[in-house]
Amino acid sequence: MNNVPQAAAPAPIASRPTMIEFRDVHKYYGDYHALRGINATIKAGEFFSLLGPSGCGKTTLLRTIAGFEDISSGAVLIDGKHMVDVPANVRPTNMVFQSYAIFPHLTVEQNVGFGLRREGGTPAEKARRVEEALEMVGLKGFGKRAAHALSGGQRQRVALARALILKPKVLLLDEPLSALDKKMREQMQVELIRLQRQVGITFILVTHDQEEALVMSDRIAVMFEGQIAQLADPETLYRRPNSRQVANFIGVMNFLPAKVLTEAAGRIAIDVQGLGQTEIDATQAPGAVTGGEISVGFRPETLTMLYEGQTTTERETPGTIEEVVYYGDMTYYDVRLDGVDSPVRISMRNVFGRPVLDIGTRTRVAWSAGALVLFR
Amino acid sequence: MKGQGLRLYAILYLVFLYAPIALLPIFAFNDATIISFPLRGFTTEWFAALADLPTLHLALKNSLIIAVSSSVLATSLGIFAARASTRYEFPGKGGLMGLIMLPLVLPEVIVAMSLLMVLLGIGVNLAIWTVILGHTLICTPFAIAILSAAFQSLDKSLEEAAYDLGESKLSTFRLITLPLVMPGIISSLLISFTISLDEFIIAFFLAGSEPTLPVYIYSQLRFPKQIPAIMALGTILVALSVLLLTIAEYFRRRGLKKTGAKDTGGFL
After folding, report:
1. Is-contact A167 A196, C-beta < 8 A?
2. pLDDT band (50, 70, 90) for residue B268
3. Is the pLDDT of residue B260 over 70?
4. Which positions in chain A touch B157 (Cβ < 8 Å)?
5. DSSP state at residue A26
6. Is the CB of B74 inside 8 Å of chain A's CB atoms?
7. B60 lies in which domain range?
8. Domains, chain A, ordered by start
9. Fewer CB atoms < 10 Å away: N or C end of chain A?
10. Among A50, A6, A86, which Cα is nearest to A226's?
11. Among all residues of chain A, which has the CA nearest to that of B258?
12. What does the pLDDT read at residue B267?
């Protein structure tokens, strides 16, 4: 996938035409309610992720697009067409399977060209398309190899080439990177993003890896128990999760109990345990908070530990270090702020000249009201 | 020394298992009509004698027809059953599969007797095809057991991938499923063939006036002067069995190599 020309900046997501539409989709397996009213639209050319823990229904939802699962009620539309009674083999979608599903008895080029069997065109034409597809995924010259002699990463690429050769409107990816090791996975993430920009096809990725979803997606639907809990772009999802469940699933979030004091003119005055009284913007409460007992969340990197003699223009709160976890580039501290029941996690970059502090050290923590998120 | 006892046991076990079979070729080449030591000398006379036994040729022909037909029938039926039991869920599946597999443990003499009663009861003339019927019945459970393993190890998403790429259900079966379970199909054919070829009780009950090879061999044991020729016949059968098994194993290993699967043990 080297030397791919960079495509022009794509149009903003909201202005693009709709590619997939879920209208109140329900799916039952006997008594088990696997999908509970899915409503969402996925735009043309979007890199869209379905993120959630295992058993949340994300793979089932993906398979309703492919046509491998019937829905119990509601509707799935692809490019404006109802998909009821349209079998998987004629839908304008192709899939990359979790196991890659490379046909073990065929060669690489027979695998990649498998979908062309039913298409018109001369053998020479087909061979050219196979060669193009292989080149696109960086497997030029691998055509004659036996499929079973490939490494995990190569199988992944063959699966991609095989699915993309038919130029589907939508490419479905079912946890495609979960079987690769960490280095390979990170490399493939970058290549998948580049490939998606190059071909401009709508990619829908199923993953349980929040980091993978954040890295790759234009938008992410976070799913729990057959429902979409939040659908947003990665930054909104990370900075403004609309529930504690979403906040916990994506990255690390500290929570402190708090009270709402007053709400007026888009500003909310709150009293947070340990941090004291402060005022935040109404947009920091995406989960629609209405007074009373609530909790406040903040990410570990929004806090800063102040060293001796350091001052801050932000608010600061004293505390004691209870745990130190050293990661090389980062150090994680669990700090019990004065007047708080449980410690909060703070991540500090190990820049040159900054010592790693010991357990038991008294410290001051700087924080800013703008980084707080309110939860019911 | 530690382990000596076990080694002795293993050796005795193998001797017990193979000594009688080793005697077959020894007496087949022995220049005497009486089966006893000391050996008299080397001869191929008994093998030549096999060529002059028309009843043997008839029995051999019958056995081959029966073995080929029932192995093909049992394997075909086995493919459907194995596919259904590994891919689909349906009510009463457990009980149904249990009933299909039951002939595996039913005493053959019971199966043979009841089949005979039913066939005679409905006025059917005993012939080769009645033996084929009986052999298919007892071979099918073996075929299902072998084929279920083959279908089980087939990743379901391979079929979905082919379907997703535009193939029909039927062409997916032909292009993907069938080639990948082919080693299982060959195994099933060979095992069923072997079972049918040396099956005695059902053949004895249902063959009517058409003897199979085991039935013929049994009938010849009453004539002492025929015994060296039977020994020669036995030698040929043992050699054939080893050859067949080797071929089956060759195909199994080649299939594994082709699909890159792990070797989890086979016949050899």
Report:
1. no
2. very low
3. no
4. 97-99, 101
5. E
6. no
7. 55-221
8. 13-92+168-244 (3.40.50.300), 252-375 (2.40.50.140)
9. C
10. A50
11. A105
12. 44
